[in-house]
Specification:
Elements lengths: L1 H13 L3 H27 L4 H10 L2 H8 L4 H16 L3 H14 L4 H15 L2 H23 L14 H13 L8 H24 L3 H24 L12 H16 L4 H13 L15 H13 L15
């Protein structure tokens, strides 16, 4: 809903164009990068861990897709990182506002927003800041989401999977094999297990660590997993898949970075290799999630040329989710 409102404003100001439709996504990318830089500067100052962190988080090929795709997920991740930065700065009210805007971009951001509220309570050992944070993000998000969601039913929330292992497997695929279109199921499963173990170890380290970033990320990740499992078991909410799990990429990467910093320089080597692997996959021909739309622009241009030439234009299309 929030992205739609911003896109409408952008089109009203600049006219109908790809650039105008994608302007809110670019705005979200700017918020994401600025907030990421502030988080890393606060934690690592001017050390070489800061550019390593920027590369590890921002060069993820799947994140790069949503920095330009005219969807709200990248914008939501930008507000999520802005909220985390605000928590680290002790600005709980602004953190609630930022995460309310993240929630307003897509309902799936309710989980990391709620997890942040819980982490604030656990770390600060005080209910008041956590309640303030929760009240703000819930009220702001609900106010913007109410119109589009009020007529929704459970049938509209079909996008998802039945296990967290499948969630992890899809993120492994889009992150490490971004432009591989064939079947790589076994590699996905192995990668999901490794990423999952790394996350659990990171949470364990984060909860026990005294560093603010490590503790906060450990609390957010642990609480988010608990909330996802609870929603699935109690309400039948499906686990996130592909873009609806996008927020896990910056959370996982930042947690791994913070834990590696505690472990020493050698722990940075695998993270540097990951950043290099991400950069090596950069490609701008199509979005991983919408490969079937790769030649949409060419089709539109062909239709336009045929129309101008006075010829008859026949368009045949199928909806990819129809079995």
């Amino acid at each position: 809903p929030l992205y739609t409102l911003l896109a409408k404003a952008s089109i009203g100001a600049f006219g109908v164009s790809e650039w105008a439709l994608r302007l809110p996504a670019l705005f979200g990318a700017a918020i994401f990068l600025w907030s990421l830089w502030r988080i890393l500067q606060r934690e690592f100052k001017d050390s070489w861990w800061t550019p390593l962190g920027m590369a590890l988080v921002a060069l993820n090929p799947y994140m790069l897709d949503f920095f330009v795709a005219a969807r709200g997920y990248g914008l939501g991740c930008g507000f999520l990182l802005a909220g985390i930065d605000a928590v680290l700065a002790g600005r709980i009210a602004w953190a609630g506002v930022a995460m309310g805007l993240a929630f307003a971009t897509n309902l799936t951001f309710a989980f990391p927003a709620a997890a942040t509220s819980i982490a604030i309570v656990l770390i600060g050992r005080s209910l008041k800041p956590g309640f303030l944070h929760a009240a703000l993000w819930l009220s702001i998000g609900a106010a913007i989401e109410y119109g589009p969601v009020r007529n929704a039913t459970s049938e509209h929330f079909y996008f998802g999977v039945d296990t967290l292992r499948e969630t992890a497997a899809t993120l492994v695929r889009v992150t490490f094999f971004h432009h591989t279109l064939g079947e790589i199921r076994e590699i996905e499963r192995i990668g999901a297990v490794i990423a999952g173990i790394a996350l659990l170890v990171g949470i364990w380290i984060g909860i026990r660590d005294q560093g603010r970033l490590t503790r906060l990320l450990g609390g957010i990740c642990a609480s988010c997993i608990a909330l996802l499992i609870a929603a699935h078991l109690i309400a039948g909410v499906r686990y996130p898949l592909f873009r609806t799990a996008l927020y896990w990429l910056p959370l996982w990467s930042l947690l791994m970075l913070a834990c590696a910093r505690r472990a020493g320089r050698l722990a940075a080597v695998p993270l540097a290799i990951l950043a290099w692997w991400f950069a090596a996959q950069w490609k701008a021909d199509y979005f991983h999630e919408w490969t079937f739309c790769a030649n949409t622009r060419e089709i539109a241009q062909t239709i336009e040329r045929s129309r101008r030439g006075g010829g008859r234009v026949t368009v045949v299309a199928t909806w990819p989710l129809v079995s």
